[in-house]
Amino acid sequence: MGITVQNITGNTAMVIWPKMAGCVDSFYSIMYHPNWNSALSSYTRKSFQKEERVPTSRSSFVVENLTPLTTYVVCVTCQSANPSSDQCRVFNTLERDPASVSNTKKELALGIWLTSSVLLLIIAAVLLYGCLHLLCRRRRERLQGQDGTSKQDPGKAWSKSAAYVSEELGRQSQLRQDSEEKHPGGIQLATIIENPSACKEPAVPAAESRERAPATGQGLDIK
């Protein structure tokens, strides 16, 4: 059939075959298998690890995901039958390309970075949710405490004012009792001070006072 294998690398190889005018099927079957040993392996379809199907309009196919430094056999048939030896070729893959190695490392690093980023985002979201939940709960408790304090404040103010008034009344009564015990005569003075109208004497006219004064003086001269 004139099958050739070109552009062999550590992971890929291009298989080329001539178009078959007598192929009645609508596809070509490309079969390949690693670690091929023609002395121990037979050219049967079940002996091949991989099989790809391409339209009959094509005459080439790139085999991918190969293992470096490995012997492969590839066969191309135009019918769903076991291939013959003239429809197969054996080739060896090369060492892994430095570019593919660097690409693999980049892909690995990118995957690790993406995984770490996702994990960090999940952890940050969990922590943020916990903090917001804690803040909301504390705020709710604070508001409830303020409501309870505002409800209790009028009663406390009234009780404090009543206690203050009773305390002042008791203090005044105690002071009054102490003053009565120490100064009994001071009661009248306190009464006079409280009711100054009770101690007022009738007003004496000025003319009568002048007349009484000389009379008093004459009596003294007679003696």
UniProtKB/TrEMBL annotation:
InterPro entries: FN3_dom (IPR003961), FN3_sf (IPR036116), Ig-like_fold (IPR013783). The chain crosses the membrane at residues 110-132. Residues 169-223 are annotated as: Disordered. This is FNDC9 protein. PANTHER family: FIBRONECTIN TYPE III DOMAIN-CONTAINING PROTEIN 9 (PTHR37361), FIBRONECTIN TYPE-III DOMAIN-CONTAINING PROTEIN (PTHR37361:SF4). The gene is Fndc9_0. Residues 1-96 form the Fibronectin type-III domain. Keywords: Membrane, Transmembrane, Transmembrane helix.
